[in-house]
């Protein structure tokens, strides 16, 4: 097995593992019959991001990107369906889902009908997906600032942090092997934000060991 194939399998395993962390929220929703302390937008935005990267993989004819994002999109759709089943804010969830659907359709029309040149289409789609991915990785920074102030890491998920670190790292090396910086650049912030979380766990975990039990909220 060559290095590219090894990195391909690493990307698949670690990314599916990261997406599967949502199963914890799914279990919590089924047991409590509610969506309290569980956010809906991360499921929705991740689903859109998966679909965008899946299309990028199709244009690039990259089976690794296609497979990972098909699995990711299916898992996010499952989370969305279960969230809609148990939420008390169905009107809000429906409007957000409808808005996402409109954005998806508009994006599809733009990339398929208005961009006829294959290279330009691939480049602009890669840039769009990269921007969305970077924003998703950087969005928890305000929460990390609050954790530094409070010294409480109970709202962080250590398994998700580990999964994010290995997922981002594997994709960075995979992108470097392909010389595809649309893969390298958006995954680099995931490494740094994970390292920040590891540091926070190391710094504050001992302080929180005597704290009462809690329900973790994934960031």
Determine the structural class based on helices, strands and strand pairing. Answer: mainly alpha
Percent helix: over 70%
Alpha-carbon Rg, integer = 18 Å
- Beginning-to-end CA distance, first to last residue: 35 Å
Query: How many DSSP helices?
Result: 9
What's the number of structural domains? 1
Overall geometry comes to globular
| Share of β-strand residues | under 5%
* Pattern of helices and strands: HHHHHHHHH
Low-confidence stretches: 209-219
Biggest sheet layout: none
The chain-level mean pLDDT equals 88
Short characterization:
The protein has 219 residues and is mainly α. It has helices at 3-20, 22-32, 41-60, 63-86, 90-114, 118-138, 141-150, 158-178, 181-208.
Name some characteristics of this structure.
single chain; 219 residues; mainly alpha; globular; disordered C terminus; transport
Describe the structure.
The chain is mainly alpha-helical. The protein has one domain. The chain has nine helices and no strands. The chain starts with a helix and ends in an 11-residue tail after the last helix. The C terminus is likely disordered.
Secondary structure layout:
Elements: H1 3-20, H2 22-32, H3 41-60, H4 63-86, H5 90-114, H6 118-138, H7 141-150, H8 158-178, H9 181-208
Helix pairs in contact: 1-4, 1-8, 2-4, 3-4, 3-5, 3-6, 6-9, 7-9, 8-9
